[in-house]
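# step 3/5: fold
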Amino acid sequence: MRIVGRYALFDEIASGGMASIHLGRLLGGAGFTRTVAIKRMHEQFAREHEFVTMFMDEARVAARVRHPNVVTTLDVVENEGQLFVVMEYVHGSALSTLIRLARKSHEAIPLPIVAAIVAGALRGLHAAHEATDDLGRPLEIVHRDVSPQNILVGVDGVPRVIDFGVAKATGRLQTTHQGQLKGKVPYMSPEQVSGKPVSRRSDVYSAGAVLAETLVLRRLFEADNEAAIITMIREARYELPSHVDGAVPPIWDTIVARALAQDPNARYSDAREMAQAIEAVGPVATAAEVGEWVERVASDTLCTRKAKVAEVESSSQVRIPKEEPAAPPSTPPSQISSISVTATPSSGHRVGVVFGVVGVIALLGAAVVLFVVTRSPAPAAGAAPVSSDTSPEKSVASSAASSAPWLHPRRLRRSRAPRRPRRSSRRSRRSRRWRPPRTATRPT
């Protein structure tokens, strides 16, 4: 196992001329994991600028195609001078492997399953042909390598187009040199083997060659060398499916012949039109039926792959190391008061702390003033204040009384203990004054 960024790289499950495919595992946060397929460029090509550019172009082009019949590109990782393309993992087998296993068992592929696989791949190609960039401009993608090796059929019954490594598209950094052929020769169109401009109808031609091979389990063009194959393609020397296998209905010959027309304008206008023609021939297998057939034909290969996936998933407990906060030192309670803690709060928190401290100091000052004022003795009546007394309590009290009249000591004492009302002294003197007795006078 090798850690590449946030991915764990495991065993190789497939290999090509320029790169190999590995099982991988996404190691996300909060325990999130996911099984992925990671395409890794061979080390001998990782130092060549042309191959590195081609590798990056493939990732950019494939990322713009979003369709269920196209394998999704998830990420591109650069680690220690190597490039890795992360794709969704599809548990299944390539169509080339399924054709080889069916031929080995002398069992023809059922026509409804052929229709479902080839029509699904054509719809994925049509999505690639219609892909646009971020500004909505057509990318004019041409796969240029449509073959059974690049059609992956999953146990979910969904065929998917893979490998846009040699695809032609607007804005690619890598260009094709004059006379350079990219793709697999037995599936190339006449214009492609002749070095002429290619279009989406070139992919339609290649899909016709794939359809013919899937029907009869034999390549449409076979020869001892590539030069002989190129001659056969240019001269259109091939046998129609019904001529090879009498069990194939002649209606399939019509579809294959139109897709393999020498003139691109005589072919289907796009991949979707060819898919519709295939689906109109007869019954098309459901995804469940295709998945069951794949599991039955490629059971040994899939069981081995499934065991590898289970091993990868069981070992995915590996986590990307993260920095853990240092644990505070254990301090006895008796020493806590003698420890000074230095904190670095944020600016907002610092302002809040300052205002809190100022508020506490103000409350403590007011409490001290009230305490001193209420505890200070009242001055005697008529006595003049002593200017030589400089005690802090009295100075604070006097300043408080001068600034706030309601804090005067006498008023505080009155508000604290209400006084009993006294009888008027004038009334008491009147009550003690002698008065002569009144004499009663009677009328005569």
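# step 4/5: annotate
Confidence is low (pLDDT under 50) at residues 320-351, 378-407.
# step 5/5: archive (pending)
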